[in-house]
Write a structure and sequence with these properties.
Low-confidence stretches: none
Number of strands: 9
Mean pLDDT: 96
Strand content: 25-35%
InterPro entries: GyrI-like (IPR029442), Reg_factor_effector_dom_sf (IPR011256)
Number of helices: 5
CATH class of the largest domain: Alpha Beta
CATH architecture of the largest domain: Alpha-Beta Barrel
CATH topology of the largest domain: Multidrug-efflux Transporter 1 Regulator Bmrr, Chain A
Number of domains: 2
Largest sheet: 9 strands, antiparallel
Distance between the termini: 43 Å
Protein name: GyrI-like small molecule binding domain-containing protein
Amino acid sequence: MLNLMKENKTYYQASRHPELIELSKAPFLTVSDKGAPGSPTHMSAIESIHTVAYALKAIYIELGKDFAVPVLEGLWWVEEERPALEVPTEEWYWKLIIRVPEFVLNEHLEQVKQNIQRNNPELSHIQMIDIELIEEGLSVQMLHIGPYEKEPETVQQIEAFMNKHNLVQNGLHHEIYLSDFQTTPPDKIQTILRYPVKNK
């Protein structure tokens, strides 16, 4: 069975200190919308993308190409000039992503979307799911351990590292959810925080 997380350890590991890494292009399932973290819209999108990912896995098991479904990730942004933390959370935009093998075909994605929508009409984000190639390139990242509410403390360390090395943000705030937030105690949740960067 193909395990993308084991084969791409650089992508799915980070230290407790800011570090600079280089990331190549890879395919991801994606779904985008707007709303507060944990809101019904956000949770519906999470359920939808996971449902599609595991339905694709089932197809490829039958084709002799089984793969482990990697962890969920999120890209976050606001469409205002104010800092994100000053914007009401219901105005936050996000793109949920899950990495998939390069052999996953769009025709199989469309097949599972139609099947899922037929049997689960309440999943309103199914038809919004696509496969996208994402390439962040040069990035700064750090492992955050603790509740999401304390992420700004880790972000401050990342920003200090960027300033020290004359780097500026060149992409979206990226979170990789190594822990299941529904079953993990808040103080033990592990999240990789990552920012694409470029030289000033």
